[in-house]
Amino acid sequence: MKTRRRPLLLALALGLSATGLAHALSPPAPPQVPEQVSNVAWATDMTEFSKNDATSPPPRGGIEFIGSSSIRMWESLAADFPGKPVFNRGFGGSEVRDSTWYAYRIVIPYAPCKVFLYAGDNDLNSGRTPVQVRDDVVAFVQRVHEVLPKTTVEYLSIKPSPSRAHLLPGINQANTLIREALSALPNTGYTDIYTPMLGADGKPDPSLFREDMLHMTPAGYAIWTKAIAPKVQCDGVSG
Fold first, then answer.
1. pTM
2. Which of 37, 67, 171, 233 is the most interior residue, by most CB within 10 Å?
């Protein structure tokens, strides 16, 4: 009886091993919308980043800027911070949770000493609440810190775009919630770029925006540069 059971047990073991191997080799399931990402189209951006990394990788331990189109369109980033190891990984009209989902592809491998994150207004515009945006920012910080606990995550507050003036109450609430949440977390920071982008009347300054009243002109980026310049440096060693 024992001799008959051995081949059976061996076959079962081999079968389980083969199943496990097949599972390990199978491609990961695509991200789910809206639980994990806002749009699966960001996979195309990730592929493009991978191609660029193969030929011109960003500096390891550098200073990364990540987030939505306001980051992606910051074409003067390197010139605005001369001599600093800055690099850009902004993509599309992404939301906070998109940067969280893809952090293992476009944050963790670079081991940046500091990450500047800008996202949130697309989130609110798509229907997410200020509380959800706050929670999404905290989730991004946790994703980075679970591998890179010494990397500083600096959040840039949601900007006051004239085309999204109807969202200003929610933007203010989200900014307040995020600032309070980050104040309790280690190796994080918060930069207010909302207030300096308001005009003398306390409303969004249209002169800082392009015709779409959503994306910024060089004057808008100049305000961002001035606000964060003192922080564009490595405070410690990431890892």
1. 0.84
2. 67
